[in-house]
Each structure stands twice: as structure tokens, then as C-alpha cells.
Design goal:
- It is a single chain.
- It is built from twelve helices and two strands, in the order H-H-H-H-H-H-H-H-H-H-E-E-H-H.
- The protein is globular.
- The chain is mainly α.
- It has a two-stranded antiparallel sheet with strand order 1-2.
- It is 33% helix and 1% strand.
- The chain folds into two domains: 132 residues, Cytochrome Bc1 Complex, Chain D, domain 2; 132 residues, Orthogonal Bundle (Cytochrome Bc1 Complex, Chain D, domain 2), CATH 1.10.760.10.
Length: 369
């Protein structure tokens, strides 16, 4: 599915004009005072340099620009976009025949009905066994640089094939999967259209699914309208939350950019025996209990939260960061008690809610027979 710009119904709340005027007057007064101080000793008739104070940007235009949505979806050079690949990839993504028991598809754990996750604290795999981690969303995966909670997949193509083969997830050996797909009459022509002359291969399965996943992009949210200059798009509480997000709360240190993630790994002080990234970087103390920073787009559709689904609400997420979690050697230096007030916590939640768009339902594909 191609990304579509959504029409967002804006809030009817009136902007606080008196607050804006007061801020403007304060900025103007400060600027005039600084200029007056600079020219106080100027001698008439003598040319000299006057150092003017830097322009104060009351609206934070540069900060807003850092959160502006991109205009294109990136596709890798070794797997460029094609319509045929998206068509094939979507069918594969929703096809339960990619699992050994014919019960699970990619969409079982990454469903459009649950913000492209599954709504469960942790995933459910082969033979209905409970998995150890939350199913991460695939929203905006096109912009990712490393994948899985622990970063064990370098590309989206690699990630797409991982759960298919994993004995605790879909439990389907690739050689067996190739035989199964070749025996379904309508699949070979689809692969030929997407990959002329290359046929049904494990590599092409991964490429097709990854191409479809890259088209799963978050919609235009109220926050985006505000970033573009519509002051009515979000509430004053959300605006205060955005300011906190970038200052006292320091959320931006990890949740940066338009997709609100640094694609890095941090121990945020959660009580969990899972060491995450530490399994692969055993000698790096800060990698112990470290997990990938999730993006925040469509966040209200993706509860519960954290790598183990242990936090049920956004309010509880903010409370965790306010207290700082467990203090241990691996805990990120960015995580510390914030001592947020109740108002500040509420404002942060109000801001986070502006990151959810009004996504259109995803149509299920007709599967090959």
C-alpha cells in the first residue's frame, strides 16, 4: 500500500493569542535591551562594529523542522521498489501457509488492527507457545537501520526471513517453504512478475515481504499539521508536552527525528532477566539489558509497551521514566529520575497522543490458490 496523506480533523480549541502576544513582547523587549546595551558607547561620526544579539526564534522553527515528515520512502539499491514486488509481498505477508502448521502469518504478530503489532504483552508462536518478547511494530520500518529488539537483523530482508525459520515462531524450514509455494499454482507467475527469470527463492521471499513492509508508513497526524504551522492542530497541553519532551524530560535524546527513534540500544532500567543486545556484545556493560529504541508514531494503537509488554499505559510509561527505573551499571546514563510534576506527566501524554493518525483500514489480499 502506498502512503497516503490523510485529512486530519483539527481540534476546535482556540489558540491562546494573549499568551503568544506576551511571549512576542518579552522577546522584543529582550532584543531591544540587548541592542541598546551594544550601542550605548557608540561615538557619533566614528564607524565601529556592533555585535547584535542572535535572533530569538520564539516558535522554535529549527526544532520543528527536525521533526518534519520525509517526502519519500527509501528503498535499498539491491532491492528497489516495484509494484509487482509489493503485490507479491503483501500476499506472502498475510499467508498462513508460510508457517509449518498453516496457522501463523507475518500479520499474526504484526497486524494492522493493532498498530502493526499484536496487542499482546509478548508474541505467540508455533503450537501457541508464548514468546519472550513483545512483537514490535513494522510501522516506518523503511527508515530503520537495524532490526529486532536486540538488533540481530541488519536488514529488513533478513528480518522478514528470521521469524519464518525460527522454531519457536513460524517454524518453517526454508527448503520446505520453497516446495510448498512452488506447488501453489498462482505463486510462480507472481514471482516471475516481481523477479523476472529468478523464480521462487528464499532471497526473493525476503525481498518481496520487505518491499511490502516498507510501504507501511504512519499517516499524517495532528502533530504534523502543527509542525507545518497550524497552531490549532494540537492543544496547549500537547505543546507544553512537546517542550518538555525536548528539554526537562530529555525524551529527544533517544526518541529523535520525525520517527522518534535513534535506532540505537539502551538499558532503561526495566526489571527483566532478558539481557537483549548484551547477548551479542557480551563485553560491553552498557549493552546488557539494552533494547532498541522504538519509534513513537501511532503510539496510542500499540499498547502494551516495552520489549516485554510489561507497561500497560502511556501514563505508566511516563511514570517509569520519571522515577528512573532500576539503577544498575548497564543503565543508560540518559536514564535518571526526572521528578516530573503531575501536570508535566499529563502534558507529555497529551503530546504523545498527537502522534497517532487516522489510518485507513488495510484490505486483506486474495491469496494464491
Amino acid at each position: 500500500m502506498s502512503p497516503v496523506i490523510k485529512v486530519v480533523e483539527h481540534s476546535t480549541e482556540r489558540p491562546n493569542y494573549w499568551l503568544a502576544i506576551a511571549i512576542w513582547i518579552a522577546v522584543l523587549a529582550a532584543s531591544l535591551a540587548a541592542v541598546t546595551a551594544s550601542v550605548a558607547n557608540v561615538i557619533i561620526g566614528e564607524t565601529r562594529k556592533i555585535d547584535l544579539p542572535p535572533r530569538v526564534n520564539a516558535k522554535g522553527d529549527e526544532l520543528r523542522a527536525s521533526y518534519r515528515r520525509p517526502t519519500a520512502i527509501p528503498f535499498p539499491a539491491n532491492n528497489p521498489y516495484s509494484f509487482e514486488k509489493v503485490v507479491l509481498g503483501k500476499k506472502l505477508y498475510f499467508d498462513t501457509r508460510l508457517s509449518q502448521a498453516n496457522l501463523l502469518s507475518c500479520a499474526s504478530c504484526h497486524s494492522p488492527s493493532y498498530g502493526w503489532s499484536d496487542g499482546q504483552p509478548t508474541g505467540v508462536g508455533h503450537l501457541m507457545k508464548r514468546l519472550g518478547r513483545r512483537s514490535p511494530t513494522i510501522i516506518n520500518a523503511a527508515y530503520g537501520v537495524i532490526f529486532m529488539w536486540d538488533g540481530r537483523a541488519d536488514t529488513l530482508e533478513e528480518q522478514a526471513l528470521g521469524p519464518i525459520q525460527a522454531d519457536v515462531e513460524m517454524a518453517m524450514p526454508l527448503e520446505e517453504l520453497l516446495k510448498r509455494l512452488k506447488a501453489i499454482n498462482e505463486y510462480p507467475p507472481l514471482f516471475e512478475a516481481a523477479f523476472p527469470g529468478k523464480g521462487i527463492t528464499a532471497e526473493n521471499i525476503g525481498k518481496a515481504i520487505a518491499t511490502y513492509e516498507r510501504t507501511v508508513i504512519s499517516g499524517r497526524a495532528p502533530f504534523d499539521a502543527w509542525i507545518d504551522g497550524d497552531e490549532r492542530a494540537i492543544s496547549d497541553a500537547a505543546k507544553r508536552g512537546f517542550a518538555l519532551f525536548n528539554t526537562k524530560a530529555e525524551c529527544k535524546e533517544c526518541h529523535s527525528g520525525w520517527n522518534f527513534t535513534d535506532d540505537s540500544f539502551h538499558d532503561i532500567g526495566l526489571a527483566s532477566p532478558d539481557i537483549g543486545r548484551g547477548k551479542f556484545l557480551t563485553e560491553v556493560v552498557k549493552s546488557q539489558h539494552a533494547f532498541k529504541t522504538p519509534g513513537l508514531r501511532e503510539i496510542t494503537q500499540r499498547a502494551p509497551f516495552m520489549h516485554n509488554g510489561s507497561v500497560k499505559t502511556l501514563e505508566q510509561v511516563i511514570e517509569h521514566y520519571s522515577t528512573g527505573g532500576i539503577d544498575r551499571p548497564s543503565r543508560s546514563e540518559l536514564i535518571k529520575p526526572l521528578n516530573l510534576t503531575e501536570q508535566e506527566k499529563a502534558d507529555l501524554v497529551a503530546f504523545l497522543k498527537t502522534l497517532t493518525s487516522n489510518l485507513s483500514p488495510t484490505a486483506m489480499p486474495v491469496l494464491p490458490r
